[in-house]
Amino acid sequence: MTSARDDRLVGRSVARREDPRLLSGRGRFVDDIELPGMLHAQFVRSTVAHGTITGIDLTRVRQVPGVVAAFSAADLELGDITAQLGRPLSEFVPTAMPVLARDRVRYVGEPLAVVVARDPYLAEDGLEAAKVTYAPLPPLTCEEQALAADAPRVHAEAAGNTLVDVGLFATEGIDEIFDRAPYVVHVDVRTGRQNALPLETRGAVAQWDAREEQLVLHTCTQTPHQVRTVASRCLRLDERAVRVIVPDMGGGFGLKCVVGREEIATAAAALRLGRPVKWIEDRKDALSASFLAREQHYTARAAFDADGRILGLDADVVCDMGAYSCYPFTAGIEPLMASAEMPGVYKVPAYRVRGRAITTNKAPTAPYRGVSRPQYVMAMERLMERAARELRLDPVEIRRRNVITDFPYTGVNNITYDPGSYLESLDLCERAVREAGWYDRQTAAKAEGRHIGIGYSCFSERTGYGSAAFAQRKMEVVPGFDLAEVRMDTSGAVTATTGTISHGQSHETTMAQIVADTLGLDIAKVKLHQGDTDRITYGWGTFASRSIAVGGSAVRLAAGKLGDKLRAIAAAEWGIPPEETELDRGRVRRRDDPDATLGYEHLADIAYLKSHLLPKDIDPGLTATAVFDVHNDGTFSNATHGVVVELHEDTGQVEILAYFCVEDCGVAVNPQVVEGQCRGGIAQGIAGALFEQITYDAQGEPSATSFMDYKVPTAHEIPEVVIHHLETPCAFTATGAKGAGEGGTIGAPAAVLNAVNDALRPTGVELDDTPITPETVHRALTPRTPEQTP
Question: Which stretch is the leader sequence (predicted)?
Fold first, then answer.
């Protein structure tokens, strides 16, 4: 039973409750933790991309003043981190990732030993004294090298350097469909390798609590319970003997939703030494040796009829996952995501796809905001643009003819899409661009010799993945559900505890809005706890836009149970059925007599301090728990992005003149927070489209080890974003909300790329790869002589 209040908080832009603490310097991050006797750790890392280890000599390291200890894999004897899929070896090859490399190194920056010293600077001095010798092996730094017939193997067990090779779908007769189709268009799309680049790098503080006989690990992770599970197994401890606590966190973006090796090694060092140990990743290691993302290659074709409607889609997806599978998602996360969801918002009657994850001598890949969707959406949107040109149709019109309009819709990929506003968002976005005068300005600019382009992307964002959706990937570790507890004390204040974890998503505000509305309570009386594995039995953390859709639903259900108990206690005191009561502004009110109320403090006194007055069927206390899982194919947010760019002929620079976003995430618990998520995601999408990329030389050395080399956009390059909200409430979540965390990143690369190609239309040049460099644009805009034309 929910509140009778008219002034509901859900749907309102309530001011962020986190801000006063964070903006006044009262936040507490991992690096703020100081403990008596604390030591500091840094890691000896591989300087070669591929080779066998012939020796690790730490003798001189231990002699460096201030160094307390140095440990190699042989010293610590830790278990490996191994991610598994329940697939045959023909489809998936598991690879063990040692916490510290033992026999072989597989990328530059791979951790070999941990050095522990009195301060981080002395630990850095210790690194310089380490002596590591290798027998180098040929490094593989690109897809072509990895898949060559004579390529050396990154892992002996992975033939063809392929970790995943799955054909999820193959519609019968698809070849004949393409043979008969009036129009067939092709794209070859590549996206650059990126770094998720959270403001706060990874870090950990580990200590042994002798009284509790428990390892306490403070770390900035999106998935504290999974870190606990892996740490207990690698360290051979009972899981009860590991407590993971996440303080404030400065961003994650998926990078921190996998279990890293350094956190485990830091914990092992603390156990061995009996003293607290802190490790904070420096920016050089964060850029080059941390988990990376995005490097993918799509070879795709689409068949269309004479009216511009899709007849079939055929794709080959290759994802370069670097040296290892990440835990728990494995190397399958990128190709399986792309294969399952590539048709997206379009009605595709026939579909065939092959998805592969290959291994190379580069830092391993973790999920990064969007997880393959920015890439497959870019491939699909390029196909739509190419078909529009081939059929001489307006790019928006061809999308109108193909987007899903009847819901629920079960696609050729066996996914059922819940109701959304695919056509409505497309129409509204085009109207917003047109009413802002950009089509007229584009025409005027063309007469002046300027190059202005307008581009769109339409997409859905699968959010609120439940256990069933993850199980379809055959993951051995199956995320999905989340658990919440809501507890009221004798003062009538409420504490909500959730298995999700905020790293910038405003959970302290949005979860409190849900609880306050459900209980008819002042939001100031609600406090959120998260990020502590001893406070909640298990939780899957925050990734894949699941926090409000799944975690928020669990909170809503738990708060509802608590509200039911309050009403039952009040009803018993009045001698009436609970159905004749309602919650309203911190009180239970009789429906038949609005002036008759009992305050929550009074009811809490009975529940805790006068439990002898409770009916026999009501237990003492005011605590409720709930579990929520999305028992279907998940929920689908959707959006359309429209971008206006100008290409500068003299420099090749791409200037974004205007950006429009029309999004539908179901019920927006806090519209201001949703807009913040959109803008932040769009900034990261623009970064991938135009700026960020990590490349490797022939020896496997990464190109970007500082911000001198890794180009990150600033506020100057990111435009103002005009956002319009649509609302299609979700029937599968307790809040009506869908996820909103990744949509901005998903839509931006395709929209920017399409706008650039629209500006390049007079040149006849089309681009399909990102990032789009000034050199590429300059070349495209520079007239060529017949002799220069290939």
Answer: none
> What sign does the CA torsion over 503, 504, 508, 514 have?
negative
CA–CA distance, 727 with 424 (Å, rounded to integer): 11
Q: What pLDDT sits at residue 171?
A: 98
Total residues belonging to the chain: 790
Distance, in Å, from the CA atom of 700 to the CA atom of 106, rounded to the nearest integer, reads 10
Q: What whole-number distance in Å separates Cα of residue 656 and Cα of residue 759?
A: 12
Give, to the nearest 10 degrees, the angle between helix 422-435 and helix 438-447. Answer: 50
Q: In this predicted structure, what is the pLDDT of residue 632?
A: 81
Asked whether 751 and 758 are in contact (CB, 8 A), the reply is no
Q: What is the helix (H) or strand (E) element at residue 555, kind and residue range?
A: helix 552-574
> 364 preceded by cis ω (within 30°)?
no
Bridge-partner residues for 546, per DSSP?
Answer: none
Residues with Cβ within 8 Å of 282's Cβ and at least 6 positions away in sequence, in order, are 201
Question: Residue 450: which residues within 8 A CB-CB, separation 6 or more?
Answer: 646
Q: Are 683 and 713 in contact (CB under 8 A)?
A: yes
Q: pLDDT digit string (tens) for 539-581?
A: 999 999 999 999 999 999 999 999 999 999 999 999 999 999 9
d(CA 562, CA 557): 9
Pairing of strands 351-358, 310-320: parallel
Contact criterion met (CB below 8 Å) for 635 and 463: yes
The tens digit of pLDDT for each residue in 369-379 reads 999 999 999 99
Q: How far apart are CA 262 and CA 116, in angstroms?
A: 13
C-beta separation of 415 from 633 below 8 A: yes
* 733 CB-near residues (< 8 Å, 6+ apart): 464, 549, 550, 552, 553, 628, 630, 635, 666
DSSP class per residue in 643-660: EEEEE-TTT--EEEEEEE
Q: How far apart are CA 39 and CA 123, in angstroms?
A: 9
Name the strands in the sheet holding 111-117, side by side, starting at the edge strand that comes first in the sequence. Answer: 67-72, 111-117, 39-45, 277-280, 203-209, 214-219, 242-245
